[in-house]
Design brief:
- By secondary structure, the chain is an alpha+beta fold.
- The protein contains three helices and seven strands; from the N terminus they run αβαββαββββ.
- The radius of gyration is 27 Å and the shape is globular.
- The termini are far apart.
Length: 179
């Protein structure tokens, strides 16, 4: 049996000490990084997706390149920060007589489709309108819907619109965008 030369033993000890120090530093860094996960203060690199509680109809409208109609009421908006893409939601009520003019100024890719029945197999959207206190447009009967743009100009990747007649005088407009 051969023994290692006497001078390689100190190197082995130094290597082991450096390895142990790196392990301790890595463990401390991992602990520090994961300690904030449950605090609710995640940033864009933390828990995603997350809702931006400062989103307003005006800011979401700007991100969608939408001019809010003057007669719009019950405006609600949400912005969901995602890892790569953000979800944009905007709803408002318009007099039914003004809904068509609003949709026309969006210049949809095709005429809106009329859907008489709710969709049977609705896939849960990542940015649901239930966050705004409204049912999903896919779950509603007698609704007009369609793609406004995909891709869109600027940072907006896609935009869809749905119009649901609430009663004889008012309609709810749903806009969902991805940027």
């Amino acid at each position: 049996m051969t023994q290692a030369p006497a001078q390689s033993r100190p190197r082995k000890r130094v290597g082991l000490a450096v390895g142990a120090a790196l392990l301790c530093l890595t463990s401390a860094a991992l602990t520090a990084c994961t300690a904030d996960l449950g605090s609710g203060t995640a940033d864009r690199t933390g828990n995603v997706p997350q809702w931006d509680d400062k989103a307003t109809p005006e800011t979401v409208g700007r991100l969608m390149n939408i001019e809010l109609p003057a007669k719009a009421t019950d405006l609600r908006a949400a912005l969901q920060n995602g890892f790569q893409d953000d979800g944009l939601l905007l709803t408002f009520t318009l007099p039914t007589s003004e809904a068509d003019a609003f949709v026309e100024q969006l210049h949809p890719e095709a005429e809106l489709r009329q859907r008489d029945e709710p969709r049977e197999n609705v896939i849960k959207p990542t940015a649901p309108f239930s966050h705004l206190g409204h049912p999903e447009p896919e779950s509603l009967p007698d609704i007009r819907e369609g793609q406004v743009c995909a891709p869109c100009s600027g940072d907006l990747n896609s935009l869809t619109v749905a119009v649901y007649r609430l009663d004889d005088s008012d309609s709810r407009v749903y806009l969902r965008g991805v940027d």
